Structures are given as structure tokens and as C-alpha cells.
Amino acid sequence: MDLPQTQTLQLSLERGVLTVTLNRPEAKNALSPTMIAELTGVFDAVRASADVRAVILRGAGGHFCAGGDLKEMMAGGLKPPGAGEADPIVEYSRRFGRMLHKASTLPAVVIAICEGAVLGGGFGLACVSDIAFAHAEAKFGLPETTRGLPPAQIAPFVVERIGLTQARRLCLTGAQFRGTRALELGLVHEVFTAEDELQVKLADTLKQVLECAPHANAVTKEIILGVAQRDMDVLLDQAAHKFAACVRGTEAPEGILAFMQKRKPKWANA
């Protein structure tokens, strides 16, 4: 596999294992449009290659991913599209959802290393992994609703990962929790407290993965993911339009501004 050129990702392929490091540490690896596009391109390349057996997702600088880059999203403006024009906010939201769906359905085994901030879109990436490790003190959460937004493209994958009951609570409260609780919820499979401990666990897992036949693993994933038998693209299309409506509503501008000003939004002070 020829590794694509990327600005926001570091890529390393060794013995069938592709390590993808989200590399915007100054922004806690928040998902910019460029990063979303580059991740999509990498996942497409993995799908087209027989060289990659496993994909490791990790973040640079001690954080996995702090979610979507709200500053870049808001920079595009909130003006509704004209007649016959594509809605840029819908397109932004759907590009993110398509990237998550591609990661979820990769024939290769996807392993997420969750450290530091695992929020919003980063939480979504953890949910579409096949295997996830978390630092015991990693901070997980879905803060979208505290900023006036729905976790539109993330919520379906959260439900698939941990079930409807827990997803409702997490999505509707914006609650944050640590890696040990993520293990209890079934969001991750193992926790670690130090890098050497992680490397032992990761090496053991990769050994097991590489002992499985690659095509058998790919087919097995396809079967498992087909259990729900629902059209994810239709669901995500609908969610993208709902997301755009919320962005242009009364809550999102206040929620995002409050987040950037490091204060509570108005509804939190009621």
C-alpha cells in the first residue's frame, strides 16, 4: 500500500499494521475538515489494499481527539443556502458521518487508543473501532448538547456500541467520565495506566489479530455489522439536516460562544 500524503495525520505501515496518528496536538486533535478528508482517504486506501491487516488510531500529544473543530465549522457562516444550492453545514456533517461509517466497515481490524480527551467526534471514532484501549484517566463524553447541538452523526454509532439505554443518558446529559467507566459501559475493552502496560496489551492483541485469516476477519465483520439490517446512510442523511437546523437555531451560537469564552451557556445558569 502506498501511503497517501497527509497534513494532519502521521502514517506508519509495518508488517500489515497501519498506525494512524491524529496530529493536531495544539487543538487536542480536533477534527478539522482537512483531517476528516484525510482520514476518509486513508480508509479508502486501506479498503483497496490487501496489505493492511489492522489499523491503529491514536492521537499525538497525549489526547485522542477532542471532537469537531467548531471554529472552522462556524467560520463557514450560518446563512441558509439559496434555492437549489447544497447546504454547506449538511455537507460538513455528512462528510464526518461518511468517514465514521467507512472506519466502522473497514475489512481491517480497527484498534483505538483512547487517551486524554475522547470527546464528541473522538468518542465517535472510539465507537467505530473493533477493539479499544483506554487510559484509566482518559476523559470521555458527548458535550454536543451543552453547546446547543445534537451529536447527529455520532449518536447512531453510540447506540450500536453501548445500547439505547446508556446512549440516551450520555447523549442527553453531556456527562463526562473516565476510562474506567468506559470499560464498565463496554465502550472500551481494556484500560491501562502506563505506556509500557499499553504496549504489552497492544502487542498481545495484534498477535491474536494477525493469527486470524484476513479474509475471514473481513467477512466476519461484514456479517456482524449486518445484524441490525438498517440503512445507516439514510439515517445519517436525516441526522445531517437536523444538525444544520440546530446550527442555525438559537442554542448553538450561544453554546459555541460560551465554550470559546470558557463560560457556562445561558441555559446552564437557569
From TrEMBL:
| InterPro entries for the chain | ClpP/crotonase-like_dom_sf, Enoyl-CoA_hydra/iso, Enoyl-CoA_hydra_C, Enoyl-CoA_Hydratase/Isomerase
GO MF term set: catalytic activity
**Which family, according to the similarity comment?**
Belongs to the enoyl-CoA hydratase/isomerase family.
SUPFAM superfamilies, sorted: ClpP/crotonase (SSF52096)
Q: Which domain of life is it from?
A: Bacteria
Xref: Pfam families: ECH_1
A Gene Ontology biological process in which this protein takes part is: isoprenoid catabolic process
User: Which PANTHER family does this entry report, sorted A to Z?
Assistant: ENOYL-COA HYDRATASE, POLYKETIDE BIOSYNTHESIS ENOYL-COA HYDRATASE PKSH-RELATED
Record-given protein name = Isohexenylglutaconyl-CoA hydratase
